[in-house]
Amino acid sequence: MRQGSGILSMRQRRLAWLGFMLAALQAPVSAWLVADESWLFSLCVALMVAIVIIADDAARRRPANATGD
């Protein structure tokens, strides 16, 4: 049984992980440095990128001949 391909290429997947890590690390730093709540934007971006990574991982784990039923 062959595994399916994901929605991201390996290069896009690496860039997504890099973006996730940068946004996740920026959120607490900007929360500490800035008095307003703008750090929540970094947190939301990190969560959206994490969802894309999880969806790609699920697509990669699905067998290649599986249908969307």
Oligomer: single chain
N to C succession of SSEs = HH
Query: Nearest-angstrom radius of gyration?
Result: 16 Å
In the residues, how many domains can be counted? 1
| Average predicted confidence as pLDDT | 86
Detail the poorly predicted runs: none
Largest sheet: none
Shape: elongated
In total, how many beta strands? Answer: 0
The helicity comes to 55-70%
Euclidean distance between termini CA atoms = 18 Å
The number of helical runs is 2
Structural class: mainly alpha
Keywords: Membrane, Transmembrane, Transmembrane helix
Transmembrane segments: 15-33, 39-55
Structure commentary:
With 69 residues, the protein is mainly alpha-helical. The longest helix has 24 residues, at 10-33. It has helices spanning 10-33, 39-61. The chain has one domain (10-61). The two termini are 18 Å apart. The radius of gyration is 16 Å and the shape is elongated.
Brief sketch in words of this structure:
This protein has 69 residues and is mostly helical.
